TrEMBL record:
Keyword Mitochondrion attached: no
Originating organism: Anaeromonas frigoriresistens
Pfam families, A to Z: Amidase_3
Keyword annotations from UniProtKB, A to Z: Hydrolase
Entry keyword Isomerase: no
Listed GO MF terms: N-acetylmuramoyl-L-alanine amidase activity
GO (cellular component) term, any one: outer membrane-bounded periplasmic space
GO BP: any one term: peptidoglycan catabolic process
The protein, known as: N-acetylmuramoyl-L-alanine amidase
Domain called MurNAc-LAA: residue spans: 62-177
PANTHER family: N-ACETYLMURAMOYL-L-ALANINE AMIDASE (PTHR30404), N-ACETYLMURAMOYL-L-ALANINE AMIDASE AMIC (PTHR30404:SF0)
Length: 235
């Protein structure tokens, strides 16, 4: 089974799922590269539509997917809205899919704390035999699921994505592996790196506190040594 990962947008196409903390194209790429590396570690054949800040037209993007020989495509995105009310994760699958893969991925994401919005399909208004979204419609026989990890415009989603993007990325991998009946290894190097990244602030604060305590201890030790030296000189 071959997988292809699609970091939505890129280059001049920053798209709307952005805010003061990230551009959607950059967060999509970060999530996608993390997933790509996990699949590589597991020995799963995987490709990616872009691995840097490159613009891909819809035709180019779908052509890469169709010509990859992959059977499943994960297209990563972040939602947005004109006000801050809407929130939650959405997964869109083709009208010709049974939705099993999308549902498994959603279950894993919910397990990591995302706000579930919906798993759905959407038909083209001009031709109900076709999918509305071009990534579902124009990727040929590849089963494509579009994942919207939350709303950049919603404060709760924004905080969750900032703090948990890596966990969300790994959850998608687990859902896909469950669909493929492949065992997920929890001791991957990628997971270790993620843990370090997610705990960076806490670790930094702990190290800072330890350093302060160490300096205080060293100062006390230096004073004690000087006292002993002074006594030795008197003797």
């Amino acid at each position: 089974m071959k997988i292809i990962i699609d970091p939505g947008h890129g280059g001049k196409d920053t798209e709307g799922g952005s805010n003061s903390h990230w551009l959607e194209k950059d967060m999509n790429l970060k999530i996608s590269l993390y997933q790509y590396n996990i699949f590589k570690e597991l020995g799963v054949e995987v490709e990616i539509t872009r691995n840097d800040d490159t613009y891909l037209s819809p035709d180019k993007r779908t052509s890469i997917v169709k010509e990859s020989g992959a059977e499943i495509c994960i297209s990563n995105h972040i939602n947005n809205f004109t006000n801050s009310s809407p929130k939650g994760d959405e997964i869109i699958h083709s009208i010709y899919s049974d939705g099993k893969l999308a549902q498994l991925i959603m279950e894993e994401l919910v397990g990591e704390g995302v706000n579930q919005r919906k798993v759905f399909t959407k038909r083209h208004p001009k031709d109900p035999t076709k999918d509305y979204y071009y990534m579902n419609r124009e990727t040929g026989n590849v089963e494509t699921v579009i994942i919207e990890y939350g709303f950049a415009s919603n404060p709760e989603d924004k905080k969750k994505i900032l703090n948990n993007w890596g966990k969300y990325a790994a959850a998608v991998v687990r859902g896909l592996l469950e669909y493929l009946d492949i065992t997920y290894k929890s001791n991957l190097r990628s997971n270790s790196i993620l843990d370090e990244m997610l705990d960076y602030k806490k670790s930094y604060e702990n190290l800072l506190n330890q350093n302060i305590l160490l300096r205080e201890s060293n100062n006390k030790l230096s004073k004690k040594i000087n006292q002993i030296r002074n006594i030795a000189r008197i003797d």
